[in-house]
Amino acid sequence: MADGESTESRDESGGQVSQAERPEPADIRIEFRESLPGDRAVVAVEQDGEVTWLASERHVPPKAAADFLAEMRRMVQEGAWVQNWPGLC
Fold first, then answer.
1. With contact defined as beta carbons under 8 Å apart, do 46 and 82 qualify?
2. pLDDT at residue 42 is higher than 50
3. Structure pTM?
């Protein structure tokens, strides 16, 4: 982050969005699959209020998935990652 850079989110009109006005954080999960289309390592599947990361057992070690999930949850909790689904705006 650059010096003086704001950590607040902006709404679509460019105004600041306070912590109290932010949507509820998403539910984030990881589910392992034997394989994924195109031999991908991960695929995100989203719906209102939820993101499920499908992870290939072949490409993603369980420890890496756990670390990724912990980091995603930390970012959501701190407001660094926000999803604005239609039902949550």
1. no
2. yes
3. 0.63
